[in-house]
Amino acid sequence: MNDDIIKIQGLSKHYHGQKVLDNIDLNIVRGEFLTLLGPSGCGKTTLLRLISGFENPDSGTVIINGHDVAGIPPHQRHVNTVFQSFALFPHLNVFENIAFGLRCQNISTPEINSRVREALRMVKLSELSQRKPHQLSGGQQQRVAIARAVVNQPLVLLLDEPLSSLDYGLRKNMQIELKQLQRQLGITFIFVTHDQEEALSMSDRIAVVQAGRIEQIGAPREIYEEPINLRVAQFIGQVNIFDTDIIEINDKALKVRIEGRELDLENRRGFRADQHIYTLIRPEDIKVWDETEVTDTHNMLPATVEQVIYKGSTVDLMIRLPSGRLIAATEFFDEDDDTLDYERGEKVWVEWYPGWEVLLPHE
Amino acid sequence: MNSDRLFTRFAIGINAAWLTLFALVPIILILIVSFLKPDPNFFVLMHFSPRSYLTLINPIYLKVFARSLLLALITAGCCLCIGYPFAFILAQLKTRFKPLLLLLVIIPFWTSSLLRSYAMVILLEAHGILNSFLLRWHIISQPLHLLYTNTAVLIGLVYCLLPFMILPLYANIEKLDLRLIEAARDLGASHLQAFGKVIIPLTLPGIISGTVLVLLPAMTLFYIPDLLGGAKSLLLGNLIQMQFLYTGNWPQGSAVSIALTVLMSLLLLLYLRLIPKAQRSQPL
Questions:
Q1: Model confidence pLDDT, tens digit, residues A264-285
Q2: Average pLDDT of chain A to the nearest whole number
């Protein structure tokens, strides 16, 4: 069964002799919310422009809905873009901005009117249809930009960092609205962002793009919990990385040395003895115990609290290990630990739930 | 702060004085003269008379006026057709020679347009540069009869007034947000549709400014029809010039001038009514 709306094969693109995209393969499933996540300049916007037809690839193919789109101009691709700058037409009112795409085709006026009104209702702008773009707030402009694109019922909607110009609160709201809209419409969304939180909360799948290549593609949870390499792990969320020596392997158990102490870990990747690996552990997976709270210090690291940052629902700790290394830990308030009293200079023991760590080989 | 305000007042004062002295006073003088009686000896007779204005309804005057307006419109149209692509290309160029290219548009202003019109005579006459060139390369077999025709006047006017069209267009097109064209293309507009639905409306202020700036002088540049059109091509500018210099009928010349000013003011008013709308549509 072939339910890929877009198939990208071996796509490469250079600018001025510099490789921007390097042999990209990517299949996008019909109806999914796919996010291209990467730092600025990683090539994610270029990838979007190759799909929309504003750039031509040096090599490779883009197949949209079964058709190779090489040489097909942007206006015939049935793909619409929500631009970062919104790019609303300043001389047209909201209604006419949304109707623009429909008027370019030969669609009857009554149909245009009903479809635009429907789109206006969808983005809750029915009352503002006669306003000019400059009379709208940032969030309203954003909605017009979205309505203007989806009213054409595109095969795929491309969104190029559409929320980056909005302030924090508005951005949060728009994230939820966008996700709802996508479910409601069933249109495939390809969303570009450098904001990992945005990517994690909205996407069905995330493609992590770095230096012109897709490092990993998978569900948000997969990307966050099972990063395929250090680059992905470091880009998505905060992570503590320990140099780790394997001492002994017993079937599914690993005996390793981290920061000079012997710890027992699970062997899930089939590592060999004497291998040098990395242990990755997220701050929120770390438990920090007061010296008085623990009796058995097996599988724990001794440390000293260096900084306490109270965040309301959590407390972020910076913890110094005996080697001098600083690691980050996030502690949550819960029934077991409703006070979370940590003081600077306090001696603590650090552990994590066995199996919550990620082990990666040296590259 | 205080000196700032002082400077502002000073600058506005100078401007106001300048405009009063060299624009308002002359216009008022012309207005007064246009309501007086002509006198061959003393220029004007101090008697009120609306006769000069009544003469304006004379079919000969109306004919000259219609001819002038038509020629001015054709001139503006030609300037627009040449100037728009020129300004567009110039504005979109990404080269360090851009200021130099813009300078080349302005350089002709540094020479008197009267002199440049004489140069056009040399270019266009039967044994002139253009005809010699075309004959040498066997593009034509007989010299083109250009000089002292309406075509020559048109060529002269377009040549002289083209920068007035290019400069406002350039200023407008340079501000054009190219991402809007991309957005139009993305939404399914062909190149032609993007041009008609986005580029033209957004550059309309430049088109209107350029057209007005060309129309006004095209009606009154008397020496171009004089030099290039010969005596055959009588335009509004020549009419005014004749009334003052040859016929000695100052009130009549003034009346024609005033009529022209009123008409142009109406045009400007129309333009000002159109412009704020268009400017309101400029991106924030």
A1: 888 777 777 777 888 899 998 8
A2: 88
User: In chain A, how many domains are there?
Assistant: 2
Residue A51 and residue A151 in one domain: yes
Residues 129 through 158 of chain A touching chain B, CB cutoff 8 Å: 132, 134, 148-149, 152
Task: Identify the CATH number of the domain in which residue A320 sits.
Answer: 2.40.50.100
* A212 within 8 A of A19, measured Cβ to Cβ: yes
As for the ipTM of the complex, it is: 0.80
For the stretch A19-61, pLDDT in tens is 899 999 999 999 999 999 998 888 899 999 999 999 999 999 9
User: How many angstroms away from the CA of B90 is the closest CA of chain A?
Assistant: 23
Q: Which domain holds residue A16?
A: 4-235
Structure tokens at B164: 């007035």
Examine residue A201 and state whether it is found in any structural domain, yes or no.
yes
Residue at A74 is within a domain: yes
Confidence of residue A254 (pLDDT cuts 50, 70, 90): confident
Alpha helices in chain B (DSSP H): 2-19, 25-34, 51-55, 59-92, 98-106, 113-124, 129-136, 150-174, 178-186, 191-194, 200-220, 223-229, 236-245, 250-280
Q: What local confidence, expressed as pLDDT, does residue B166 receive?
A: 93
Write out A328-351 in H/E/C secondary structure.
Answer: EEEEECCCCCCCCCCCCCCEEEEE
Same domain, A206 and A247: no
Residues 6 or more apart whose Cβ sits within 8 Å of residue A66: none
Residues 1-40 on A with a CB inside 8 Å of B are none
Check whether A328 has a pLDDT greater than 70.
yes
Say if the Cβ atoms of B186 and A89 lie within 8 Å: no
Name the least confident of A139-143, A183-187, B42-46, B244-248. Answer: B42-46
A119 touches B: beta carbon within 8 Å:
no
Give a yes or no: residue A293 inside a domain: no
**Whole-structure pTM value:** 0.80
Q: Is A60 on the interface with B (CB under 8 A)?
A: no
Tell me what pLDDT residue B127 has. Answer: 80
CA pair distance B201, A222, nearest whole angstrom: 50
Query: Do A278 and A185 belong to one domain?
Result: no
Bridge partners (DSSP) listed for residue A319: A305, A327
Same domain? For A175 and A265 the reply is no
Q: Tell me what the mean pLDDT of segment A190-216 comes to.
A: 92
Which residues on neighbouring strands pair with residue A281, listed in sequence order? A240
> Chain B contacts of A136, Cβ < 8 Å?
none
Same domain, A50 and A184: yes
Domains of chain B, start order: 58-280 (1.10.3720.10)
Quick check: B202 and A90 in contact, CB under 8 A?
yes
CA dihedral of A119, A120, A124, A127, whole degrees rounded to 10: -170
**pLDDT < 50 regions, chain B:** 278, 280-284
Residues in chain B closer than 8 A to A73 (CB atoms):
185
Sequence-distant (≥ 6) Cβ neighbours of residue B226 within 8 angstroms: B238
